[in-house]
Amino acid sequence: MLEKFFAGNPKLIMQWFSIFANGGGLDHKKGAKALSQFAFVNRDICWEELEWKGKHGQSPAVVATKPHYFLDLNVQRTVENFLDNVPEFWSSTEFAESLRDGDILFIDTKYFVEFFVGLMYKEDSRDVWEVISQFLMNESFSFLCNSLLITLGDRELFTVLELLHIYLSMNMEPVDFGNSSCWLEFALSRFNDCESFD
Questions:
Q1: Cα(first)–Cα(last) distance of the chain, in Å?
Q2: pLDDT tens-digit profile of 94-122?
Q3: Angstrom distance (rounded) from CA 109 to CA 152
Q4: pLDDT score, position 158
Q5: How far is CA 52 from the centre of its chain?
Q6: SS3 sequence of the chain
Q7: Of 50, 56, 42, which Cα lies nearest the Cα of 17?
Q8: What are the C-alpha distances in Å from 135 to residues 58, 84, 189?
Q9: Beta bridge mates, 73
Q10: What residue ranges of the chain have pLDDT lower than 70?
């Protein structure tokens, strides 16, 4: 999937893979760190795919002692080579580790939202809906309101209120009026067959 995300898009390649540190390999960031670690571990299958800005390439032994040489890597051409010739990189633990914190989603949020929505409507989408359910059940109501409800138009918000009403009607427990969050639940439980959002 992420091969398609990066393929043919130099801007995205540079955003994710070009942050090499001056001081050494431990300070490389995200994709740059994944690229350098994978290149060392798998140098027998991919070192020739590394493109350098200088007149000649660098050997693994030299770069191991001077990791700042990665600053001379032609990142765009290297990643394009990896896209064409090193499929192992895209399923490697090094690349997966660079994605773990989810920062990749902020590079092109629209792309990932559309991709995820597409997964939701595929035939075998049970796993996707399970992830959504877990997220919705584990997050606080206030976080969900701040993050999700403000993005909805009137019609979509009306639909959410209808669904919340159905859910609360099925799961209504005795109301503890000392708990301030119960007031919203109480109001939503009374939301029934309204004709307009107002």
A1: 43
A2: 999 999 988 998 899 889 888 888 888 88
A3: 17
A4: 76
A5: 29
A6: CHHHHHCCCHHHHHHHHCCCCCCCHHHCCHHHHHHHHHHHHCHHHHHHHCCECCCCCCCHHHHHHCHHHHHHECHHHHHHHHHHHCHHHHCCHHHHHHHCCCHHHHCCHHHHHHHHHHHHCCCCCHHHHHHHHHHHHHCCHHHHHHHCHHHCCHHHHHHHHHHHHHHHHHCCCCCCCCCCHHHHHHHHHCCCCCCCCC
A7: 50
A8: 46, 36, 23
A9: 52
A10: 23-27, 55, 165-198
Whether 82 contacts 46, CB under 8 Å: yes
- What local confidence, expressed as pLDDT, does residue 29 receive? 85
For residue 35, give both structure tokens.
């690229």
The reported pLDDT for the residue numbered 83 is 96
The CA distance from 82 to 11, in Å, is 16
User: Which residues, 6 or more positions from 107, have their beta carbon under 8 angstroms from its beta carbon?
Assistant: 12, 15, 16
Domain extents in the chain: 2-109, 126-193
Task: Provide the pLDDT for residue 143.
Answer: 83
- CA-atom Rg of the chain in angstroms: 24
Q: In the prediction, which pLDDT does 89 show?
A: 96
